[in-house]
């Protein structure tokens, strides 16, 4: 049977006031036996692929989407809670807890659930040589590659599962090496690239989306040539384009947008949808209210140095709101990207951006700079769309200086979208940041939760955790 890999404990771990209560479905985790492999038909594959998409962020994206933003330096959070709960304040201290104090087990299990669905699709199509199902095969390979990328970035080496009905813990073996996992990811994404159609909707992986993932991977792994190649392939696509309407990247209804290449959507959510998604986490508390009357928690805001880095007129800074934070007794700047989402829309869908075209432009510029070339063309293309002033080559005395500027541009562009922690590692900022929190390099990765270690004694805990 097709097995749903599910979280054993602690499904409702976020601070109670932060998100909607766990649904009845989440309160009753059971294996998904709706479709048996022996009765599976080709027409069912698209449904399985859709199911895999929904599980990328554990079927409840709001709990895992902000994980590494709060872990890194762009976001400051005063959210509190006990150590056995999802606790952004402890994230800020960079001290993850193997008992799943950050719900990273939810993050882990969500990825493996999606991988399990993808494996079923991949193996079914390949075993029957269904060449007419190439799009489904490409999407499943892309999903598997993306989910292993999430896992390897969070935990370093993880167990690779390729079978249709494999639970990583039940394999009773230690994790694969980080290099083996990256090789698997790159193989899957390159195969997906050959099978997927050009971009047409952000709700499905496309050729451009997986090419951009490959560019991201190669950049983070130090291969500037391959990073540049894949970034330029995406930029050269006639199906994708940067948008001047920056806020459309965060709205569900954005039919003219060709920049948001891939997203996860939650919904339709219940009548209490004003508490869904990122809105309550990032938005200010009273006296701020949405037109519907909802308010945020007011305990999570943007690093002041980053706020001050935006130029006057930059449209990205238009998605900020200054307000007094009672917890610290001063005015702070709140991130409103997720407040303008379709929570104001009758459709009541919540949007979580995962891959945007602007990243390809900044990867291309960074790849050049890391080869001692100052080329402002791609960098300026993003800034022009954000109504920021263009720069010339002469504005940067060296490639190293330009790299610093690119790092800041990425912070301004992708604030709250989950990319900062990997950027900090690549730019050499992560370990100094951890040191400022009284931590060391062992906190570059999250711990495997105790539940997984108990299920698989051969799984080796990451260094620095007990």
From TrEMBL:
Cellular component terms per the entry's GO annotation: cell outer membrane
Domain (RagB/SusD): residue spans on this chain: 343-465
Among CDD domains, the record links this protein to: SusD
> What keywords are assigned to this protein?
Cell outer membrane, Membrane, Signal
The UniProt entry, under Pfam families, shows: SusD-like_3 (PF14322), SusD_RagB (PF07980)
* Major place of residence: membrane
Q: Which residues belong to any copy of the SusD-like N-terminal domain?
A: 101-219
Q: Which residues cross the membrane?
A: none
Cellular localisation = Cell outer membrane
- Point out the signal peptide segment: 1-21
Please state which protein family the record places this protein in.
Answer: Belongs to the SusD family.
Q: What is this protein called?
A: SusD family protein
Q: Which organism is it from?
A: Chitinophaga arvensicola
